[in-house]
Amino acid sequence: MNPSIKLWKKWQILIFITPLLLLILILKFVFNYLNFEIISLNALFVSMLAATTFLIGFLITGVLSDYKESEKIPGDLACSLEAIYDEAYILHRNKNTEVTAEFLEFYRGFLGSVLLWFHKKERTYSLMEKLGRMNDYFAQFEPLTQANFITRMKQEQTNVRKALTRVHTIRETTFIQSGYAVVESLAVFLIFGLLILKMEPFFESLFIVSLASFFIIYMLFLIRDLDNPFNYVNDGKEGNEVSLKPLNDLVKRVGRNDEATIEKK
């Protein structure tokens, strides 16, 4: 990966929230100048900060568990798709029939559709329909090979369907919307409370406001980003999306295999 891309992925949230942090600091200066700092630091305010931190920790724990599961999906999907290709390729090399050649052509198109689908350029129902069309080819393969080869291809087809369904579910659902609402509301009230909080000396309070605001805002943006690990931008090279490298590598291997087959002919 390009070092500049890696650097951007590491610091992009901080860069994005920097204007918000600067705005909070400016407001703190304004509130201090206008004597709007009307509350003092007390146990209740500290408890609110602790509660917000606890809820943020609860959300990040749930989101990270889904994210770790999502990291495995492109690799598992690529393995299942390649297993189907291997069986079809072997069958084509042994029998060299029109139907096997048609399936390999269909498979290459399906592989492209999978990548388009990840980037939301293909509808889920359309992709599932194409996956189901493999059954027509499997039925025609039965006279050409042993039943266990067809069974394996069907099993891998099922695994592909499970992976696609799981990705669709993760993309279309958000982790505990009511939890987000509570944390975001607390964050707004807490940051407002920091703005009207009177602490001496002033620059000490400015540091505390900056640090607390940075932590709360950064974590909220991070959770939102991790909540949808399949929201790809610029081919998945930016952001905290799950890597599609296993699928991209599969496309390259299939392409090289096809080129080698043409050269042999």
Short account of what is shown:
This protein has 265 residues and is mostly helical. It is built from 9 helices and 2 strands, in the order H-E-H-H-H-H-H-H-E-H-H.
Structure description:
The chain has helices at residues 3-33, 43-95, 98-118, 124-132, 134-141, 147-172, 177-195, 202-227, 245-264, and strands at residues 39-40, 197-198. By secondary structure, the protein is mainly alpha-helical. Helix 5 packs antiparallel against helix 6 (147-172).
How many beta strands in the DSSP annotation?
2
Strand content: under 5%
Structural class: mainly alpha
Number of helices: 9
Count of the domains: 1
Indicate the radius of gyration in whole angstroms.
Answer: 26 Å
For the biggest sheet, the summary is: 2 strands, parallel
List low-confidence stretches. none
Overall pLDDT metric:
86
Share of residues in helices? over 70%
What is the helix/strand order? HEHHHHHHEHH
- The backbone outline, from C-alpha atoms, is elongated
Question: Whole-Å distance between the termini?
Answer: 36 Å
Q: What order do the strands of the largest sheet run in, or round the barrel if closed?
A: 1-2
